[in-house]
Amino acid sequence: AQKITQTQPGMFVQEKEAVTLDCTYDTSDQSYGLFWYKQPSSGEMIFLIYQGSYDEQNATEGRYSLNFQKARKSANLVISASQLGDSAMYFCAMREGLEKSDGGSQGNLIFGKGTKLSVKP
Amino acid sequence: GAGVSQSPSNKVTEKGKDVELRCDPISGHTALYWYRQSLGQGLEFLIYFQGNSAPDKSGLPSDRFSAERTGGSVSTLTIQRTQQEDSAVYLCASSPARGLYGYTFGSGTRLTVV
């Protein structure tokens, strides 16, 4: 079974609108971390946002927020006020194991297959 | 350096040849990761180094793949007897021991096996 599922291969959004990118995960660990990365056409991987399983508050970073629903095992990324520069691949990832409250844990990330977001002017 | 540096940025090799890919992590980062990204796919974990501990090699797809990290810094990923299915972008990332939520990735090496 896939550990990280991103069901939307591609998404379109109008500039200045909000968009939600879906991510569900599968783990039996009680402690884990969830990440979102952006990959523009240049290929670099850009860290966007992190959510620890211990954290009951949804993470926010500027225009990015993570809608964390632990019981449903979902960690959707919400981008508000989309900009043309948001057009890119977006990857959800999970790190299993003991997650420290300062986010300072290590371990390999398990990535989903990604969602290609296209922002229309 | 300021970021994670990978070399070469592009490599074309003939099937059956060996290749070496290099990763120079951010200075002071104790953890180093190798991932592979095939065209249009997500990232596949290959191997993880953490300080002086034995590396986690659980993601290496075959014994043709190996990696080492010398002096806790630079890492080399070696693919022996390359096959066409090895064609992908190989990404390296590093992180410090504590206090970082996300990992810093390099720009990758695009490997093409012909």
Mean pLDDT of chain B, rounded to whole units? 91
Report the span from N to C terminus of chain A.
Answer: 38 Å
Q: Which ranges of chain B are low-confidence, i.e. pLDDT below 50, for 5 or more consecutive residues?
A: none
Our estimate of the beta-strand percent of chain A is over 45%
Q: Span between N and C termini of chain B?
A: 33 Å
Main beta sheet of chain B: strand number and arrangement?
Answer: 6 strands, mixed
Mean pLDDT of chain A: 91
- Number of helices in the DSSP assignment of chain A: 0
Rg of Cα set of chain B: 13 Å
Largest interface, and how many residues on either side?
A-B, 26 and 29 residues
Largest sheet of chain A: 6 strands, mixed
Structural class of chain A: mainly beta
Which strand-content bin applies to the residues of chain B? over 45%
Helix content range of chain B: under 10%
What general outline of chain B do the C-alpha atoms trace? globular
- DSSP, total strands of chain A: 12
What's the short version?
The complex is a heterodimer of chains A (121) and B (114). Chain A is an all-beta fold and 121 residues long. Chain A has strands at residues 4-5, 10-14, 19-21, 24-25, 32-39, 46-52, 60-61, 64-69, 74-79, 88-96, 110-111, 115-120.
Helix and strand arrangement:
The complex is a heterodimer of chains A (121) and B (114).
Chain A: E1 4-5, E2 10-14, E3 19-21, E4 24-25, E5 32-39, E6 46-52, E7 60-61, E8 64-69, E9 74-79, E10 88-96, E11 110-111, E12 115-120
Parallel strand pairs in A: 2-12
Antiparallel strand pairs in A: 1-4, 3-9, 5-6, 5-10, 7-8, 8-9, 10-11, 10-12
Chain B: E1 5-7, E2 10-13, E3 19-24, E4 31-37, E5 43-50, E6 65-69, E7 75-79, E8 88-95, E9 104-105, E10 109-113
Parallel strand pairs in B: 2-10
Antiparallel strand pairs in B: 1-3, 3-7, 4-5, 4-8, 6-7, 8-9, 8-10
What does this structure look like?
The complex is a heterodimer of chains A (121) and B (114). Chain A is an all-beta fold and 121 residues long. In chain A, 0% of the residues lie in helices and 48% in strands. Chain A has no helices and twelve strands. In chain A, a hairpin with a 2-residue loop joins strand 7 (60-61) and strand 8 (64-69). Chain A is globular and about 45 Å long. Chain A starts with a strand and ends with a strand. With 114 residues, chain B is mostly beta strands. Chain B has no helices and ten strands. In chain B, strands 2, 4, 5, 8, 9 and 10 form a six-stranded mixed β-sheet that branches. In chain B, strands 1-3-7-6 form a four-stranded antiparallel β-sheet, with no helix packed on it. The A-B interface holds A 4, 33, 35, 37, 42-45, 47-48, 50, 91, 93, 100, 102-104, 106-114 and B 30-31, 33, 35, 41-45, 48, 50, 56, 59, 89, 91, 93, 95-105, 107-108.
